[in-house]
């Protein structure tokens, strides 16, 4: 049966439940997902030839074919986007600067080092997001913005300020506002005797960075909390409470919630409604923790569906910025990228196609029996037929066809990178 014919059937079935499939596809088309550049090269970047990853995060695996140059990474990202329906932004880290082969330290970065990325974004008609990089650097080994050493703090404060200027430049050049995410790995392996002063120094450093005036139509800043990192198991300076309190007092900043940054059974889906109530925007790092913050490729599991349901059922598309954050080096990196984006989009589509008004009515009237029973019935409505048709309409490969394309790209391009 053709994708179109199957869709017509699904459309009729959904109409019977009062769901408009055309409207759902239109909404999905306009949701932009921020693609993390760091999936393409295992979070190494292009600062120097011998970059290595620190900061308590880790990629595992040694699959061949990773991008070794900016041009290779650009080529891979363009290919990834050719397999994706809907809208994307590209999320860059400061580590991915184009320094023309000359060393440019983090406190020296300028918009000009990202000009070629802006050209790339213009060519592909996408927006850019940004991240200062507070890891993989000699001066990040004993804390960054919370370091006891004033000169170290100053170095990183300068990095933070310059990062905001770069993001502002992205927004100005592209006419699409950037989001700049601040994640600092500062923390400690064992329990500190005294925890307050590091948080005080962190707060003061952030205050200084955010005091720099920039145009909020071009960039908004986010702060990402974390429970622990490798070698930083007992204490992190920027904890969940730190972020929630900081952002409440500094309304120009927004909370960033990463799915892997909480206790093992704690989920970000449950935090979205609170964040929506107290802040005007938030940033999500959609990831998949497996027993720890392992940054596995996002798949269509219960938590990603719960996140999508929260966004859709509370009508939060205007408040939630969706970014991906995972890095798997054990499988084809392009396939990893596409799998995660498509899973996120599928979850959003499934949420949009659920007869949510009916479920809300059951809940309001106290009919929890129907709420549960019908939720289960709705889960198996034929959303995949709508998804396939959406891909077809967006001119990207339908169903498993994208995997064939990715394999071809591997044979022709990435497998030749030896
Ligand atoms: C680390 C954070 C952070 C990074 C990226 C590279 O635990 O999740 O967001 O993964 O910035
Ligand atoms: Zn993250």
Tell me what you see in this structure:
The protein has 418 residues and is α/β, with parallel strands linked by helices. Helix content is 43%, strand content 13%. It contains 14 helices and twelve strands. The protein has an eight-stranded parallel β-sheet. A hairpin with a 1-residue loop joins strand 10 and strand 11. The longest helix has 25 residues. The protein is globular, with a radius of gyration of 22 Å. The model has no long low-confidence stretch (mean pLDDT 97). It binds L-rhamnitol and zinc ion (ZN). L-rhamnitol binds next to loops.
What's the short story on this structure?
The chain is α/β, with parallel strands linked by helices and 418 residues long.
Keywords for this entry:
12 strands, globular, alpha/beta, 14 helices, 418 residues, 13% strand, eight-stranded parallel beta sheet, binds zinc ion, two-stranded antiparallel sheet, binds L-rhamnitol
Give a topology summary.
Blueprint: H1 3-16, H2 21-29, E1 32-36, H3 70-82, E2 87-93, H4 115-124, E3 127-131, H5 150-174, E4 178-182, E5 187-188, H6 196-211, E6 219-224, E7 235-236, H7 240-249, E8 253-258, H8 272-278, E9 282-286, E10 288-290, E11 292-296, H9 302-313, E12 320-324, H10 333-352, H11 356-364, H12 368-379, H13 383-393, H14 401-412
Helix pairs in contact: 1-13, 2-10, 3-10, 5-6, 9-10, 11-12
């Amino acid at each position: 049966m053709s994708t179109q014919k199957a869709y017509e059937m699904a459309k009729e079935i959904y109409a019977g439940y009062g769901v408009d499939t055309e409207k759902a596809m239109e909404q999905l088309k306009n949701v932009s997902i921020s693609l993390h550049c760091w999936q393409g090269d295992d979070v190494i970047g292009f600062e120097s030839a011998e970059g290595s990853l620190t900061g308590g995060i880790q990629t595992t695996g040694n699959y061949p074919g990773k991008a070794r140059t900016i041009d290779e990474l650009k080529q891979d990202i363009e290919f990834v986007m050719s397999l994706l329906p809907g809208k994307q932004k590209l999320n860059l880290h400061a580590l991915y600067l184009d320094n023309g082969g000359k060393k440019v330290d983090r406190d020296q970065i300028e918009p000009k080092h990202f000009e070629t990325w802006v050209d790339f974004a213009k060519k592909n008609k996408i927006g850019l997001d940004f991240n200062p990089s507070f890891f993989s650097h000699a001066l990040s080994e004993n804390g960054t913005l919370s370091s006891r050493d004033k000169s170290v703090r100053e170095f990183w404060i300068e990095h933070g300020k310059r990062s905001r200027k770069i993001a502002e430049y992205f927004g100005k050049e592209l006419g699409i506002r950037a989001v700049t995410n601040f994640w600092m790995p500062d923390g400690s392996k064992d329990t500190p005797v005294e925890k307050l002063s590091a948080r005080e120094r962190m707060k003061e450093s952030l205050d200084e960075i955010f005091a720099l005036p920039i145009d909020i139509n071009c960039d908004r800043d986010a702060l990402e909390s974390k429970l622990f990192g490798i070698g930083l198991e007992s204490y992190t300076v920027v904890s969940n409470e730190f972020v929630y309190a900081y952002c409440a007092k500094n309304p120009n900043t927004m909370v960033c919630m990463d799915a892997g940054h909480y206790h093992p059974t704690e989920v970000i889906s449950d935090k979205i409604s609170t964040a929506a109530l107290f802040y005007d925007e938030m940033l999500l790092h959609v990831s998949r923790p497996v027993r720890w913050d392992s940054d596995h490729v996002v798949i269509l599991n219960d938590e990603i569906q719960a996140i999508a349901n929260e966004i859709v059922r509370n009508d939060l598309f205007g408040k939630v910025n969706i970014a991906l954050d995972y890095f798997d080096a054990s499988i084809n990196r392009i396939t990893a990228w596409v799998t995660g984006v498509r899973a996120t989009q599928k979850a959003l589509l499934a949420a949009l196609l659920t007869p949510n008004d009916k479920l809300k009515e059951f809940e309001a009237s106290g009919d929890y029996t129907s709420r549960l029973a019908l939720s289960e019935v709705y889960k198996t409505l034929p959303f995949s037929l709508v998804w396939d048709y959406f891909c077809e309409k967006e001119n990207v490969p339908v169903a498993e066809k994208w995997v064939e394309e990715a394999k071809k790209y591997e044979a022709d391009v990435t497998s030749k990178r030896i």
